[in-house]
Please model this.
Amino acid sequence: MDQVKIGKFIAACRKQEGLTQVQLAEKLNITDRAVSKWETGKAMPDTSIMLELCDVLKINVTDLLCGEVVTMENNNKQLENNLLELAKQKEQADKRLLSLEIVVGVFCIAVLLGLTMVASFIQAEEWVRIVLILIGLVPFLILLPFLIKIEQTAGYYECAKCKHKYVPEYKNVFWSMHMGRTRYMKCPHCNQKSWQKKVVSKD
Model:
């Protein structure tokens, strides 16, 4: 999707409706700065307000995502292209999230190992060493649910039995045995348990 083209289209539709950036922002309960970012191509409207924005500008979502009014002849093709683009953007976002999971995980482990080593080698009372190790555990324990949430929602798990790809429930990911990002879970499609790999794309 061409954000600059979409931004210019939003600006043109807004002006056609006789609205200023401030007036459009007020109708959507957002700031005029957000509208300005859309129109300059620096950001896209959030999906939660796309329908409301389209209603105000008297266009449809396909028009918005294409940055132009789409004719009936081109509608299906444009819709297909938009869906492919959204899938591509999701895949890229999932890759970034999974990379973030690795960075945060390595940080937590480094803190824990570092403080454990300090506790092992310093001359201090036993309770001081225990406190140091507990402090090292704090970031890990606090961030663990966050890391599992990333792994659950970013990408898909692929069943080793039927190759079905799906997003499992959080509790299934949390309680399952795992080796890295491969988890032993029941597939909702074939109801068989297997070691299921994390994949980014559904293709």
Remarks:
- DSSP finds eight helices and five strands in the chain.
- The mean pLDDT is 88.
- The domain at 3-70 is CATH 1.10.260.40 (434 Repressor (Amino-terminal Domain)).
- The CA atoms of residues 179 and 195 lie 9 Å apart.
